[in-house]
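Researcher: Hi, I'm a grad student and pretty new to this. My advisor asked me to get structures for two proteins we've been looking at. I'm not sure of the right format, so I'll just paste the first sequence and hope you can take it from there.
Model: That works fine. Here's the first sequence with its structure tokens right after it:
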Amino acid sequence: MDRVALRGLKARGHHGVFPKEREEGQTFIVDLVVGLDTRPAAADDDLAKTVHYGIVAEEVVAVVEGEPVNLIETLAERIAQACLKHEGVQEIEVCVHKPDAPITVPFDDVTVTITRSRV
């Protein structure tokens, strides 16, 4: 299986379990690795035979900016399901970063990574 990666998609969302997170929102960063067969697109040099990563990026940002959820696990699942709606996408790895998570000790990042497939 071939891979198309999108790294560092940024969007502001209002996800979290604390009222301040819901009210003020924060930046979330999403990395995607899309699994698909790129041979048909490469053979014909045809965008219609692969995943349009620009459209995928816009849809992912819309999910992050959309309906708030408590957990980034839930957010990652919603992003994965949106990506799997694209014909040809066989597998998706989603990593959601929450660099401004409300943690009381110094840290660099919090991430949740999931992998989902059509099978």
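Researcher: Oh nice, that was easy. Here's the second one.
Model: And its structure:
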Amino acid sequence: MGDLFQLFAVSAVVMGVSQTLSRERIFAPLRARLGGKDTWLGYLVACPYCVSHYVAFVLVPLTGTNVIRVTVGGWLGYGLSWVLSTLLITVIAAFFRVVFWYFDESQGLVKRRQRTEEEETATRRIQREQAEQTLNHIHHPHESQPPH
């Protein structure tokens, strides 16, 4: 049970870090400096799936999340376990990213709806103020004309 929790926890961390590095505004200058999605290197840091591989590659040995055990011993066995565990965590992180995108996008829709309602309210307020000014001009025409 502990291994399963750690697998999902590390996968969630990989998803979060890779999303932050590849999509959030704070790292936009880094992505732009590397060429964005127009260059090979830029694409590797602008793609959340690509970045999740690098993050998982670092986090697997740091967290000891070698969840895939191989029968080969020694350094070769450790290396295979590391690479295969990294790939598994990357795939799980990709599924987490889809779930995250769904909730993030639905939250974005809510925010866009709120912004639209606020803009409509502001537009109605401006229209009301313009109508009041027009009515004031009709009822008090001498106030708005300059003296001769």
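Researcher: Is there anything I should tell my advisor about the second?
Model: You could mention this: The radius of gyration is 28 Å.
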